[in-house]
Write a sequence for this structure.
């Protein structure tokens, strides 16, 4: 979020406030700050690409909730990705994706540099969407920002690891998709037998590990 542009706090029905922000990293920072502040009267937080929906529990009026939110102090963005190892989910990846060469060309890096850059960052789960278990990850090196493919694939396999814009993500199931695919993982992203079913949840931290061709 830029220093000269603050968030907009908009009433959203009679129990919620929509916080409009500049990007997904700013939304992650707001969710962190709200959880740390433990403001009374909040029932749920719903982050998205550039917003955080703050849902009240009905015990606090919208006006009071907005006043509390206006006083929230969000940590600098650089602190969002300095998470302790104990809190990080590691994802082993085979960097064998069909678009790895295209990503290397788009970024001006070699294949190995793309891998090193992808594994060299601690990513944060900004929000979920698209399909159950799909997490939009932010915090990667700006050099990895690449456009979606001009033509989407009709089938992307479960476990495919991709890049699109500021995000990285892992397809939880076979589905159509237009992200640039750089690798694959055997991690199960969505499992109804697990509690909770999603491996990656908003606010969580992720580190990718080069698992080699035999993983």
């Amino acid at each position: 979020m830029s220093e000269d542009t603050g968030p907009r706090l908009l009433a959203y029905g009679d129990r919620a406030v929509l916080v409009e922000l500049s990007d997904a990293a700013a939304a992650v920072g707001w969710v962190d700050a709200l959880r740390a502040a433990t403001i009374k009267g909040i029932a749920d937080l719903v982050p998205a690409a550039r917003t955080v929906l703050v849902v009240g529990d009905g015990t606090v009026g919208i006006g009071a909730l907005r006043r509390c939110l206006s006083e929230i102090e969000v940590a600098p963005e650089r602190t969002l990705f300095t998470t302790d190892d104990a809190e990080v989910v590691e994802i082993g990846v085979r960097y064998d994706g069909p678009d790895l060469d295209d990503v290397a060309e788009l970024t001006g890096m070699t294949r190995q540099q793309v891998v090193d850059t992808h594994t060299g960052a601690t990513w944060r789960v900004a929000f979920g969407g698209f399909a159950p278990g799909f997490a939009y990850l932010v915090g990667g090196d700006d050099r990895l920002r690449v456009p979606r493919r001009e033509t989407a694939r009709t089938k992307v396999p479960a476990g495919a690891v991709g890049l699109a814009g500021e995000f990285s993500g892992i397809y939880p199931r076979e589905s159509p998709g237009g992200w640039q695919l750089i690798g694959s993982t055997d991690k199960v992203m969505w499992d109804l037998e697990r509690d909770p079913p999603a491996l990656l949840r908003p606010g969580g931290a992720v580190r990718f590990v080069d698992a080699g061709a035999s993983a």
Notes: The mean pLDDT is 89.
